[in-house]
User: Fold these one by one.
Assistant:
Number 1:
Amino acid sequence: MFFQVVDILGTIAFAISGVLVAMNKRMDAFGVIIIAFVTAVGGGTLRDIMVGVEPVAWMRDITYVYVIVASTTFAVVFRNQLKHLRRSLFLFDTIGIGLYTVLGIETGLVAGLHPLICIALGTMTACFGGVIRDILSNEIPVIFRKEIYATACILGGFTYFLLREFLEDKNYLFVIAGIVVIVLRLLAVKFKISLPSLYKNENENKD
Amino acid sequence: MFFQVVDILGTIAFAISGVLVAMNKRMDAFGVIIIAFVTAVGGGTLRDIMVGVEPVAWMRDITYVYVIVASTTFAVVFRNQLKHLRRSLFLFDTIGIGLYTVLGIETGLVAGLHPLICIALGTMTACFGGVIRDILSNEIPVIFRKEIYATACILGGFTYFLLREFLEDKNYLFVIAGIVVIVLRLLAVKFKISLPSLYKNENENKD
Amino acid sequence: MFFQVVDILGTIAFAISGVLVAMNKRMDAFGVIIIAFVTAVGGGTLRDIMVGVEPVAWMRDITYVYVIVASTTFAVVFRNQLKHLRRSLFLFDTIGIGLYTVLGIETGLVAGLHPLICIALGTMTACFGGVIRDILSNEIPVIFRKEIYATACILGGFTYFLLREFLEDKNYLFVIAGIVVIVLRLLAVKFKISLPSLYKNENENKD
């Protein structure tokens, strides 16, 4: 129940972030809904087709479609008010990546995969919706340039598997891992921490 | 038989549309054939891997490969004459999306999915070959900016499920849904109907 | 054993080529490792999800992850020295595409697919890691513009199926096909052979 509520909040936040990007690119209504859709379900879809859990999650549960359509409609109608909601959106988004990381790890565990692969699946679930959104909008994915949040997902995943040595209860582990992702993300943004760019050569400054 | 002929015509039209885009981008022969290929089979491939019907359609039936190679060769050889064929190409293309929509819905029904998911699969089958073509050519997908034809696919899909309450024969339903897609697309182009852009703000005219 | 060593060398070369592209785009550490990863495993992943072999290869064997992380770390640390290694890297890369072509053909044969589809799978395995790398970096894939190496993979694949009429031993066939790919690629680069661009019209010179 708790998980489902957070899952829905995460889906809403991701869908709305897609709407904002799509409207900035001046896409039509169809483009906006598709971008909202892939941002919200893209990561889970990629996870499911790589692991072989098909039909993929959003095809098995129609709730996703309803939530995404409702969020998109809301975001389009209230697009001028959304800037006042930026803080709440950021919070939803962050809670969403925490949960999506945990959902991805769970999928890997069920398929009997190696812990590192489970962590990769968690990160993929949380982050690749945004990557696909950026590819469809013809941008270098934001995540590759300045985001700490994939790193937060990875560290949350490591926390899960480190604590598994000491804790038996899977649900506790999931809650703790999710919280680690969320707290790291919040701290990273608050203190403007980001990964260093690995420039090939500092003086090659041409684009 | 009828379906198969139209499927082949659709494949031809989609492959040729890929060739035209790839040649405009000055790709080499390999690039041209790959773009022709993904335009023709990309939508169906995405549908099949999401639903879990694998190997995907074009791997199970070698006819697709022959048709696409032949169409590409034809389009490259007669590239200067193709502009006189634009009207026929547009007609093939439109018939193609009508049929592809129906094929996608059918895949969803066979997998026992929700009507809305079936409609999404139909639209995906008809439209995402073009989306992948545009991504590989480093363009914002045309479909997200000014095309009515995804909307035609969606409305055709709804027609299918609405009429299912009254009509028992699946074949009739498929023919009607396909015709709805085709007619809507033709009318949209004839009367220059398109979806409104959802600009975030009219005066943010930068970019 | 021989195959495994070459597979690892190929993975290393592909991962390093990803690192070089990502650093040129000034991505952060996360972007660099992801691009290295998709360059190395992208082609095989696409092959596996289209054929339905899931979880995909790199999820079943953790060696890939270790090799890629080690290669990326190496490439980042020694980024200024890497230019002196260009020749060796090119050789690894070329050996890699030879082996990857063969691995893709084998996957198709195991799934009972048509020879032409097997050749497509071989080419995809060898080349699409680079395609995904370029898409994520927001470039028109290099392979579509001036590369002979996809053509080398295709010709190597045809060699496999032509010789199958005369040779029974699958291992010999694989070695010969791999060598054909490698030799063609080396010759193409040495003699600067490339496929002709298929311009739509020589005097339409606008972009």
Number 2:
Amino acid sequence: MKNSGGRQKSILLSKPLLFSCIRPYGKGVDVAAPDTSITRASELLDAYEDEYNGVIIDPQSLPDNANAFADVLQSSLVSWKLEGKKGVWLKILEQQAGLVPIALKQGFSYHHAEKGYVMLTYWIPDEPCVLPSTSTHQIGVGAFVMNENKEVLVVIEKKCPLRCSGMWKLPTGLINKSEEIFNGAIREVKEETGIETTFLEVVAFRHAHQVAFDKSDLFFVCMLKPLTLQINIDESEIEEAKWMALEEFLGLPFHRDDKLLRRITSICIAKYQNKYQGFTAQCMMSKFDDRLTYLYHGCL
Amino acid sequence: MKNSGGRQKSILLSKPLLFSCIRPYGKGVDVAAPDTSITRASELLDAYEDEYNGVIIDPQSLPDNANAFADVLQSSLVSWKLEGKKGVWLKILEQQAGLVPIALKQGFSYHHAEKGYVMLTYWIPDEPCVLPSTSTHQIGVGAFVMNENKEVLVVIEKKCPLRCSGMWKLPTGLINKSEEIFNGAIREVKEETGIETTFLEVVAFRHAHQVAFDKSDLFFVCMLKPLTLQINIDESEIEEAKWMALEEFLGLPFHRDDKLLRRITSICIAKYQNKYQGFTAQCMMSKFDDRLTYLYHGCL
């Protein structure tokens, strides 16, 4: 599909646009007179260009006044079209939410939103839009923690849906923003049970679709090694936690009846017996984006 | 962190709320008189409950009129608070974007947005919000495709950022909504080069943060086996594609200087020589959510 072609379509602020870009409104200035045309041909919204011949409008440059915004947005679009620009990115902060309907009316679409702002986009060319879509996945982690007595760390969640109410299960959770996968697993175990662990391997991952808000879900099963044994639960989230004999865990009805969970447990047991190899995490620098990131891979 | 505690916090419509819920406005009805109080104590927004004692407002039940919406939203929040409800989900379609500032004013926050709508949330209890965050990741794929002459399939992208302009690289891309990882890799190779392939293994994955819109990125390296050899490029995306001798690929300046890429290539070569084991994908049913999903794991 056209909107997923390029890999490096992240939106990066680069240099200010070289084309005419006169700032018509100071930061936070409210242009109060709605019936006065304040937009001249030379007045455009402040903007930066991205790496794809697109335009990123400076959210601080938006007038508070609706009519002024409608005028300057229209002029800016005309100008950018003449200059052959492609995608236009418009971030509108929460305090200026009244401008959103105006942008939508001029052909912008919602792209994504976060606490505090909404991002809208406009595709200028008369060809299919190739702007990247917003994020598509949430990332979950599950932790298999077994002690030297072959007991598995299990919990009963307080806030789980009815179908798993009162059920013993592995500690799980969603990773936080910008959190590493293995750190998320270690944190969830610590939060839910008080047990300290170290990361061994990602032994498997599951990919599910249409989970939350029609988005997808990647769930990484992490094998962790316990460093402590004393359980101390988070009472706001967890009903109960304990070390359960592996045989008892394998015999739980939910485990017995669930092929996916059985496969995951078999893998974890094989790993425990040194008969399986998952992926470890190695911190590496890439020249491509000058970032230190983790590469997860098997043993070479 | 509190907002990532539970694993199963997907929002599912369940049964209509059992508490009083009289529909005051028909679908699409515009309540035109802004100065008339049309909200009685018994008039609340249509809503459903979720599995976490939360409330999901029916987007079709929102009045178009701003004052009417402000009144009924306020009454509904009072009622839901009395009933001990927790999170409130409010989806506002694009055509009613004028209601967004009203909801924000009453304490709602942006949660996420997609083409056509914005989702807002409100946390009623006097305790930290535990509503799940929106999706946090985009998922990329890269394909290592080597033929029997030890030639690697490489491309030069047309729309890449300046820093990789004119550079030979592996075919890459973002997966589509609800697309399987290996299918995304097969599709990208087919789109960019015309080469048909089958999936062998996910040999590694990289986790990068603060990539697009401050979101994270998981990039899965897939080993694919070519089924055809005749290259036929997508001229809108690709400048050039060819089979490049492995030795030549290894000697490319960008490859030589990039530790991460060198590691990935070493893994792929080891896999080609049957000296490495990555993760294959197995389609399985889970009783937990009655879904057929793919579990990626090594050889047991």
